[in-house]
Amino acid sequence: MSEQTIRIVIAGPRGKMGIEAVKMVTNTKHFELKAVVDTKNAGLMLKDLEDQPNLEIPVYDDLSTCLSDVETDVLIDLTKPESGKKHLEIALDYGVRPVVGTTGFTDEEIARFSEMAEEKGIGVVIAPNFAVGAILMMKFAQMAAKYMPDVEIIEQHHDQKLDAPSGTAMKTAQMIKEVREPKRQGHPEETEDLEGARGGDVDGIRIHSVRLPGRVAHQEVLLGTTGQTLSIRHDTIDRSAFMPGVKMCVETVMKLDVLVYGLENLME
Ligand code: NAP
User: Fold this and answer.
1) Which helix (H) or strand (E) holds 114?
2) What residues are annotated to the active site?
3) Distant-in-sequence, close-in-space partners of 81: CB < 8 Å, separation ≥ 6
């Protein structure tokens, strides 16, 4: 039996992630891109936008109008935190399954959207990190820290990144915290002669942030115990790295009737 075609709307097609998502969706046999939502180009076709394929796919400036005009199974939102939340709610109102890649959801918002998804029996995926390799790195690091509890995390990003440490480094530390007791690492009488030399401290787990032009997104988790070390490293080369994860979320959300937060929870 042939795979069911999944009808998709993408919000934010002009963004760095959106451009990759349009490519991925239009190159996937069982996906059909029905429309895009772009606040600045209503009434045009996708082919009229820069860096987009030559396709007669309508551009809407408003998600509600788009979803009332176009039969859609899944919304992929790659916009901004505030519009991601708004779009998620609108999609649920129209019975459309949202896959949201924006960050900034509070625990209360996750709980509220979970309730809405459950009431409607509609799958939702919110994935602040679509990089499958990064999720595996975090899971492997968590597994290893049970047996090698001395851990240092070194994350490297491009020099335009505004926050430090990265969300992935913090998430890695949180996951490691779940499997090991808080402990002070290094010599008990260690001193820091240059402020910050030992990095940030999450229950004893040290996080070091490097910012350099030319880097994209990289993280190495170093674990050490007597006579041995283990390094677990992930490198993101460009934004196409996120697309296998987006594809997995779109396929999986069709089978869900609840909200799932975090790609790691789809990768058991
Ligand atoms: P970007 O290049 O700034 O693109 C965002 C795009 O969304 C822009 O084209 C923007 O249009 C558009 N937009 C904003 N509000 C909109 C709305 N209400 N309706 C439709 N389009 C709207 O950012 P990016 O790097 O592609 O990232 C997009 C989002 O994904 C960000 O929130 C980012 O944090 C997140 N992200 C997630 C992952 C992940 O793995 N989950 C990875 C990377 C990035 P204007 O130019 O008109 O404002």
Assistant:
1) helix 107-120
2) 157, 161
3) 102, 103, 104, 105
Residue written as token pair 């900034």: 104
Atom of ligand 1 nearest to the CA of 245: 40
Beta-bridged to residue 202, according to DSSP, are: 205
Structure tokens at 94: 């129209």
Residue 130 CA, closest ligand 1 atom number: 40
Ligand 1 centroid to residue 89 C-alpha, Å: 17
| Dihedral over Cα of 155, 160, 165, 171: its sign | negative
The string of pLDDT tens digits covering residues 131-189 is: 999 999 999 999 999 999 999 999 999 999 888 999 899 999 999 999 999 899 999 99
d(CA 158, CA 245): 22
Q: At what angle do helices 167-177 and 132-145 cross, to 10 degrees?
A: 30
Residue 100 CB coordination number (10 Å): 28
Can you tell me which residue has the tokens 């990144």?
161
pTM, 2 dp: 0.89
- Dig out the tokens for 69 from the structure: 């005009």
**Ligand 1 in reach of 60 Cβ (< 6 A):** no
The residue whose C-alpha atom lies closest to atom 2 belonging to ligand 1 is: 15
Judge if the beta carbon of residue 83 lies within 6 A of ligand 1.
yes
